Amino acid sequence: MDFDFDRQLALKGTHSSKYDAIEREFGRDDPDMIPMWVADMDFPAAPPILAAVQREVNRGYLGYFTNPKPVAEAVAGWYHKQHGWAVDPAWVRFTHGVVNGFGVALATFTEPGDEIIVFSPVYHAFFRQIEAMGRVAVESPLVLRDGVFHMDLEALAASLTGREKALTLCTPHNPGGRIWTAEELREVADFCKAHDLLLISDEIHMDLVFPGETFTPTILAAPDCVDRLIVLTAASKGFNLAGGETGLLIAPDDELRRRIDKVMVDREATPNRFGMLMTKAALSECADWSDAVRGHIAENFRIFAERIGALPGVTVMPMQATYLSWVDFTALGMTDAELVNRVLDAKVAPEKGTKFRHGGSGHLRFNVALPRPTLLEAISRIEEAFSDLQ
Ligand SMILES: Cc1ncc(COP(=O)(O)O)c(C=O)c1O
To answer: Distance, CA 388 to ligand 1 centroid (Å)?
Structure first.
């Protein structure tokens, strides 16, 4: 089936965070602004997902949701078929999004004052959640080798205080777009074992790998870390369902799951009805859409990287997955405010690099999951914004 990823939906005024929270984020907006910040795609969801929602609307009943087993089976089926991990549906728990699941994991296994290791720059909500819960985020700076991020476990080992309780991994990595290799995952798992750390693996971007690339689930690389592993993921990024606020927490270990369940029951975490139905449809009926959208995104990134990477002093990080392109402007010597304002003046709203903490200054992240004509217009605007440097 052919899908149309080139039609621009009119999203302003639709309660879209990406379109309608620009003023709040940047202190200004423009009716013509192209948003490239929030991690949503501008595409409509796949037809089976829309049909699932439509069926529910037609019935008209919107009460609490129970009996999630068929959704857990869809999750297990997808993980197995797509990523080679034989998940038992009994291991799957549903949270109100991945960040919420991260909070559940922190609440279950850590105490206020505990230190949580994060490899930065990284998705900013990790920091918000850790700090809001009175835990301490400890940054382990990623290092650049061959133009892409690498973890520096030696430096991390040397900096340990003994107060660390958990390590957070993001694979594929946001904002680097790297899929950590089996060997790297193995090393991280060994590190967690050696220092008795819970390993929280956020795999939400697993379904956004570019054609020809392969995603390795953390557990497949390090099966013996099962007694300290919590996997957080969702159908929301790969299938553009973030408004459904449904995250998946997968804990293969019985004891870890028993402790998670206690916290979830205490919080009365009933799943979001629409999010559950959308997740089930996405993971059981939409493989063709997933293939098509990943092809579209990979080509968008190729075009974006070629043109933006040709600007003097600007480096686009190569990536294997996600639609979030990490761009290095540090050679231009601008302040972060100058950089963001220059792009906003050109009517493109980027994600501020500083939100990703260490290593974020002098960088911007651009979401390329746009209809091609919109992407091309955005690229021209960014080129124009930096034309005085040519
Ligand atoms: C790595 C990562 N984790 C979690 C999230 C957010 O997940 P949710 O909206 O389900 O809380 C994002 C969103 O961009 C992300 O990039």
So the answer is: 36
Within a domain: 325: yes
Element (H, E) at 79: helix 69-83
Ligand 1 atom closest to 322 (CA): 16
Ligand 1 center to 384 CA (angstroms): 31
In 3D, which of 279, 245, 241, 221 has the Cα closest to residue 74? 279
Total number of domains in the chain? 2
Please check the confidence at residue 120 and state whether its pLDDT lies above 80. yes
Dihedral, CA of residue 203, residue 206, residue 210 and residue 211, to nearest 10: 150
Residue 86's identity, in one-letter code, is A
Q: Which amino acid is at 320?
A: Q
Q: Whole domain around residue 312: which residue ranges?
A: 17-45+287-389
pLDDT at 390: 67
pLDDT tens, residue by residue, 184-213:
999 999 999 999 999 999 999 999 999 999
CA quadruple 75, 123, 263, 63: dihedral, nearest 10: -60
Whether residue 380 is found in the same domain as residue 255: no
Residues 73 and 148 occupy one common structural domain: yes
Q: Work out which ligand 1 atom sits closest to the CA atom of 245.
A: 10
Of 62, 91, 88, the closest CA to residue 248 belongs to 91
The residue type at 261: D
Q: Average pLDDT for residues 157-176, to the nearest whole number?
A: 97
Ligand 1 center–CA 98 separation, angstroms: 6
- Nearest CA residue ID for atom 15, ligand 1: 123
d(CA 349, CA 33): 7
Closest-lying ligand 1 atom to the alpha carbon of residue 170: 1
Question: What type of residue sits at position 191?
Answer: F
Cα 24 to averaged position of ligand 1 atoms, centre (Å): 20
For 131-143, the pLDDT digits (tens) are 999 999 999 999 9
What pLDDT does residue 2 have? 85
Span from the CA of 244 to the centroid of ligand 1 (angstroms):
12
